[in-house]
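Hey everyone, long-time lurker, first post.

I ran two proteins through the pipeline my lab uses and got sequence/structure pairs for each. Pasting them in order. The first:
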Amino acid sequence: MGAGGVIVPPAGYFEAIQPILAEHDILFIDDEVICGFGRTGNWFGAETLGMKPDTMSVAKQMTSAYAPLGAVLVPPFYYEALEAQSAKIGLFGHGFTYGGHPLGCALGVKAIEIYQKRDILGHVRSVLPKFDERLARLSGHPLVGEVRSKGLVAGVELVADLASKRAFPPKAGVANKCMAFLQERGAILRAIGDTIAICPPMVITEAELDLLFDRLEQALDDTEGWVAREGLRSA
């Protein structure tokens, strides 16, 4: 889950829960807007996490974000139900405002073609050891309570106390302040609550990852100094 703070389920979670869903006839919707098209080292996050979804929603990397395009992938029994009801009323009463726009669709086809030609999946897998190595180094920082990742997406959670994982008061805006320090050093990430989300381009090189993490470490040091000066740990 990206926008919720990069929450990574424990190993075996989906394998355990899917039989329960099937038993109660609960359909499984897979949101691949962030994790789809290579982000986790496979074409879809479902492959990486052992998921077997009934439907899949995709966007973002479908066109490498050069133009808006999204899609909902459904199994035959979904489509057949829609088709049967449409035949009854004489109209397929469903659609998107810009559904099937030729510009977005053309770019989607070309983006996927480039992913295949340039072996983007292979590249993501090749830089993951460096990504994971640099993430692990952040765990020793006095502000970092937890590091979470799956493929080339990670969350670095900032805490006031490492032992108890006590959070900073929300009004302190510690992660936002860290983002400001980071931008001063020439890099842009995203703060989600007190979690710093890292979701770099899938074509990023090992050298560029080192540059990114060097700047993030410097920004964390800047933030630690600010936290101490402001007395935020005692707030």
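...and the second, right after it:
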Amino acid sequence: MKKISYSVIVKCKTITALFCFLFFSFSIKAETIYEMDFSSASGNVKEWFYNKNWEFHEDINDMNLRFENGSLVIEPTKDQIGVINREFEKKDYLNGEIKLRIEWGVDQYPKGADWSGQKEKTRNTRQAISFMILFGDDKLDSGFFLAPDLPYYISFFLGENEKPDQVYYGNYWQEGGRYLCIPCDGTKGKTFVTEVNLSEKFKELFGKEPPPVSALAIEVDVQKTESSNGRHSKAFLKQIQLSR
């Protein structure tokens, strides 16, 4: 009987292990359930969003929105606030364990933004760009009669001086709103990748199982900040992806 050499056995085991790894990797590949990809976006920004059931609010029209180099660029020249949001119909709520991935960056942070200090203190909580995920439809008190009540939400933003391991609060919506700066190293002109398990993060922040995702929003808030280079901030967004 012909003997099989040790090197042949090792080679066969290596091939088998590689095959199993590739098969396992394919089987656990994430399922994308919602995506906004700006890599090939062109034309009128407002129409592009409207065609995807997103709506414009506040001063977002005046923030020099444009598609450039495979990104959505937002560059306000005044100290304004702007929001683009997408509300899902109840039958289209995103259920189950959801993971978030964002590719984005900031070329200029708003000068004068300050998230530090106790949440009871009024702070200049501003951001060049943030992405907000809202959960369910039970609305919680905003804490201010002129501000609308909102469901639970987590808002991710890129800050210049904030810390990635800290949970931040806005001046309003403190009962149901949390702000996280991830990865948050303050670098300008760099593309960051923010990756978070939303379901786990919700449980960590609020101590309960998350309701389904009911709405998404892109926000820019540079109120009460100083102008520099003829603008108050400049940010870009390449891709937003929600997956299971």
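Reply from user beta_strand_b:
Welcome! Quick read of the second one: The longest helix spans residues 6-27. The chain has one domain: 31-243.
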